[in-house]
Every structure is written in C-alpha cells, then in structure tokens.
C-alpha cells in the first residue's frame, strides 16, 4: 500500500466537503438522533464554513491517497485555532477519518504516524484530541498508540450534549 499525503487547497473544497460528510456519516449517523445529526452535518460541513477553515493559517487539512485514490483526510489545529486547549505547545487532531471502504488497512495508523512526525517537526511537545466516550474502537486505537485520557469536554451533535474524552500523547 503506497500512501501519500497532500495539503488541501481551496481547489479541493468540494472534495473536502464530500469526504467530510461521507466519513462522519459512516462513523456516527447510526448512533445519533436523525434530526440532530442532519442539523450538525449541515452546520459543520457547510462549504463556506470549510472554506473559512481552509483560510485559517493555524488549521491544516491533508488528503490521504492510496495510489491516486483519495482514501481519507485529517485536520490539525495549532495555537488559537485549537477547539479547546489552545496551548501553543500542542497540536490538536480535530478530524482524522478513513473512508469506510478502506478501513482495516492500517491507514489510520499511518496517518497518526505522519501527524506525530509533523508535530515533532513543528517543535510541539504534545498532541491532543477529543474522542466520543461512546466510541470504544477509536479510544482503543488511540490508547494503543500511547494516548492517555486527561480530561473531558461537552460536544454537541445538534441539541444532543455528548461527552468527548480528551486524549494526549507527549512527543518528548
């Protein structure tokens, strides 16, 4: 499996919106109220909102390709663009998704290693992320890669208040 990554640009906006909706839907639609889920999907992945995020120098989107096929993406946040911690020593993984048809190929682990490499290159001391407390598969994945829970915060899907575990990986 030859994987590569490429930073997203404004020319990628439509593809970014589409893969974001597709992967988020595959991951979470079945576990959420349909109205709340659709409200969230329309709000979080609006083209104008995602274009604004692409304009943010502290938010970094990357596409992952297997050969020439787009198979996943991730979004990192730095400095004040982090959703919660806002620590200049940190990198936040806000999104990391692999298309359902390509799961089980270790693409997520490859992406995580690339993120760790990027974090070190940026001189950051830790990586953190939020993961839904009702997503044991993802929690196990991050724990296998050395992440540890350090806090919790609320996360809303529509009007449904959920709890995310905040996980951290020290880079030192």
Automatic annotation (TrEMBL):
It holds the Pfam family Acetyltransf_1. Keywords: Acyltransferase, Transferase. GO terms for molecular function: acyltransferase activity, transferring groups other than amino-acyl groups. Residues 3-172 form the N-acetyltransferase domain. Transmembrane segments: none annotated. PROSITE patterns: GNAT. The keyword Manganese does not apply. The keyword Zinc-finger does not apply. CDD domains: NAT_SF (cd04301). This is GNAT family N-acetyltransferase.
